[in-house]
């Protein structure tokens, strides 16, 4: 059934972002398509992290995270496929209130303090309470992930 789930989900377009954190002084980041807002009051956001790959660990062991909304396909590929230790090489960042890196080239970001973590199946749902954020630009081309590729929205 997990293959069926994979095959059906491949056909469902999802937004993409890069989640970052500061893990004991080390910058960590990964491309995600499981980001969503969860609650307005309190303002909560969430994503799910693959526990088999250990993607949950840095977020479990740090005090918060930043969701970087980017429309740059190359950056999304770096943060999905490049060696974890080399992902931030040559990339400009600013530190947020939780020490998590923010990409000034994003079109917006949200910063959250760790709120709850729920282990469900082979993933963990990482929930954060929004403490900061900004819209950097109004003029951008958001990407969606669909059938294993990034697509630009057009009307
Ligand atoms: C489009 C896309 C979406 C992804 N979404 C998630 C996600 O929501 N949660 C997750 O744990 N991994 C997700 N991944 C995989 C992680 O980006 C990847 O496992 C992480 O960067 C660590 O890299 P590694 O698996 O090479 O160690 C996604 C990958 C891609 C290409």
TrEMBL record:
Listed A to Z, the keywords are: Oxidoreductase
Cofactors named for this entry: FMN
- The keyword Mitochondrion belongs to this UniProt entry's keyword annotation: no
Q: Could you identify this protein by its name? A: Flavin reductase like domain-containing protein
**Record flagged with keyword DNA damage:** no
Q: Which GO terms describe its molecular function?
A: FMN binding; riboflavin reductase (NADPH) activity
Q: Which residues form the Flavin reductase like domain?
A: 9-152
